[in-house]
Design a protein that fits this description.
Bound molecules: D-xylose, magnesium ion
Number of strands: 10
Radius of gyration: 23 Å
Helix content: 40-55%
Number of helices: 16
Structural class: alpha/beta
Shape: globular
Largest sheet: 8 strands, parallel
Strand order of the largest sheet: 8-6-4-3-2-1-10-9
Distance between the termini: 30 Å
Order of helices and strands: HHEHHEHHEHEEHEEHEHHEHEHHHH
Length: about 400
């Protein structure tokens, strides 16, 4: 092939993505509770060892593009859209009114707001640092985020306390830090009760998000399970207002099974919000879009969530790769992420209603009917052949994933 001149490259990408097929109409995409973060679409590709590869994108543009794709909900960190020095000042109200206009004009809703408590230098020693003024600043920021949430009509507030940890051990007492972190959340919940009353709205659902490493070397609440223990620790004044926002990759990063982590959150009644993406075990937070790495695992995750009627948001918390252009972010990255989600969600429905999986599962639950349930040999023998169904179910899941359950084979 001859070199493709710069001015023909977008058309080539557009033609090939069209040729891929399998895209859903924007109206279909809007039927799912999919939320698009401001920071994901506006991410410019920068990192510690990476210069930006894309140009800045305004929130007006992100909202307009999400509407065109069919992503019906938008969410943001406070400082994605409001400069730190303008928070809770006139600048904030002007920006919020511009956001409301953009949302209204494009038929989008703001689903969630989140506090940036990791990027600014003020968080160097975490939002729960030793110095009381840092903690007062953190409480003020969280209260302000709650106010922004009500102003924009959000239902959820998310907190990823990225810098709640340390590089050198021994300088802080972890129990103090965790108590102080709880004080910040208590301030947010108490402010919420007041502000919700003023607005005549229900209080927000406050969702904690864990990540096992980054940006600190050691993290005090590294997993969703640690967050559950924290919610139940007695430190929170309103534990009933606080739940989880697990992120798929964050559970995979520590070597866990995301589906099992979600199951534990479901049992605790705390699975309120879910950041969807993909990546690799025991690596940094690569934030690849859903289904590009682990589609089978994703299918399994969605089977669990569908089976248990999860009805919260699916938040596209991924980062378009640095190799994707500004055009590609909205032409390829977001629509394909949404479409893989929808396809996997619908496939999860196929798994749940698949007669083979159903019969196999029912048989496993019926067991073999051992003559003596207190005799190991008799119990083992009674189930010996049935247990082969575990592998058969795994095979059937792969068949559904690749379409082979419809009779497709690769015979020559
Ligand atoms: C970072 C987190 C972040 C949160 C919101 O790793 O995923 O994007 O979702 O602060
Ligand atoms: Mg996240
Ligand atoms: Mg992540």
């Amino acid at each position: 092939m001859k070199p493709v001149p710069e001015n023909r490259q977008q058309a080539l990408v557009d033609r090939l993505i069209e040729a891929c097929g399998g895209a859903y109409a924007p109206e279909t995409r809007r039927k799912y509770y999919i939320t698009g973060p401001q920071w994901a679409a506006a991410y410019e590709g920068q990192a510690l060892f990476h210069a930006p590869t894309r140009k800045p994108v305004s929130f007006e543009e992100v909202i307009r593009q999400y509407a065109k794709i069919g992503i019906g909900h938008w969410c943001t960190h406070d400082t994605d859209v409001i400069p730190t020095e303008q928070l809770d000042k006139d600048g904030q109200s002007q920006i919020l009114s511009r956001i409301k206009t953009a949302l209204r004009e494009n038929g989008l809703e703001c689903s969630m707001v989140t506090a940036e408590t990791f990027f600014n230098a003020v968080w160097a020693a975490s939002p729960a640092a030793e110095a009381p003024e840092v903690r007062e600043y953190a409480a003020w920021r969280l209260r302000n985020v709650v106010a922004i949430g009500h102003e924009l009509g959000a239902k959820f507030a998310v907190y990823w306390p990225g810098s709640l940890g340390y590089y050198t051990q021994g300088a802080i007492d972890e129990t103090d830090t965790l108590r102080w972190y709880a004080d910040g959340l208590n301030a947010a919940c108490e402010a919420d009760i007041e502000i919700a009353k003023q607005h005549g709205r229900p209080t927000l659902k406050h969702c904690l998000e864990a990540k096992p490493f980054e940006p600190q070397a050691e993290i005090l609440l590294p997993t969703s399970d640690a967050m559950l223990a924290f919610i139940g620790s007695g430190l929170l004044a309103h534990p009933e207002m606080v739940g989880l926002n697990p992120e798929y990759l964050h559970e995979l990063m520590w070597g866990g099974a995301p589906r099992a982590a979600l199951a534990r959150a479901l049992l605790a009644g705390k699975l309120w919000h879910f950041d969807i993406n993909d990546g690799y075990r025991l690596k940094h937070d690569v934030d690849i879009a859903i289904g590009l790495v682990n589609p089978l695992d994703w299918l399994n995750v969605l089977v669990l969530l569908r089976s248990h009627n999860y009805s919260g948001p699916f938040n596209l918390d991924f980062k378009p790769p640095r190799t994707t252009s500004n055009h590609g972010v909205f032409a390829v990255s977001f629509p394909t992420a949404v479409d893989r989600f929808i396809t996997l969600w619908e496939m999860a429905g196929d798994v749940i209603s698949d007669p083979i999986i159903k019969e196999a599962t029912d048989a496993l639950k019926a067991g073999g009917g051992a003559a003596d349930p207190h005799d190991a040999a008799s119990v083992t023998a009674a189930n010996r052949e049935l247990l082969t169904l575990h592998e058969l179910i795994g095979h059937r899941m792969v068949q559904i994933l690749i379409g082979a359950h419809r009779g497709r084979t690769y015979s020559a």
